[in-house]
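User: Quick sanity check before I run a bigger batch. Here is a single chain. Can you write out its predicted 3D structure?
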Amino acid sequence: MRQRRISDWIQQNVFVGPAVLLFSLVLIVPFILGLYYSMTDWNGVSPHVRWVGMDNYKRILIEDSDFAKSFWFTTKITVTKVIITNLLGFTLAYLLVQKLRTRNILRSVFFMPNVLGGLLLGFIWQFIFVRGFTTLGSYSDFFLFKLTWLGTEATAFWALVIVSVWQGTGYVMVIYIAGLANVPQELKEAAYVDGAKSWQVLRHVILPMIMPAVTVCLFWSINTTYKMYDLNFSLTGGGPYRSTESVAMNIFTEAFTNNRFGAGTAKAVIFFVVVALITAIQVYLTKRKEVQV
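Assistant: Done. Predicted structure follows.
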């Protein structure tokens, strides 16, 4: 019996140990160090670290209007992107599970923007907004081509929404396709036999059955949009006048441009807590609506 316990212990350490060690080195240790540095005034370079306690958090929550502004901007763009991306992704998925001859090609086409990195997409769309739309506007009177898309706060906001939705729709589409493929055909046929219309089947049969996919898609889209940095950096750079600066960019600027690593880490901790609460509430609410077959 004792030899079996020793054997089980050795097996667990051999197979699970490296993963636990790697997880600790990559996530747990940096997180603990981050909590420590968030209570210091370290500049990221100096060997001397002075403990300041909760002063960084007090200054950020009370005095730092730029951080609050960037948080509000990120929240607005997250809500907008999450709604549009999931509606478009589900619509495309619902259409592409039908018996279309070109559905596989269309799936690949719609998913392709997600393969490209955010930096590359940002620079490509920056050229489109600045040069491409300007050229088209000189040949036509269409008002959208004549807007200064990256020159004002309102248009830059929608430019970020357009590009981020264009990038993320294909990803959630794939998840919704997987969810729709797992809906039992018998349930839909039984609903049609009972006289249900197509929209009634969609509302009362299909949507409740794909709630696990909805949970995943909402979690992914909320999480990735709140942490958006590369697309924000390459498309607008936070401009004009920091009006489109995301939280991630604000934290980066605080830590590595202003050389206030302690304050930047404190912002990151606040950011982590808020996003964790939002996603936890979202997962809890959507999990309650999942149907067990």
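The chain has one domain: 62-288.

User: Great, the batch can go ahead then.
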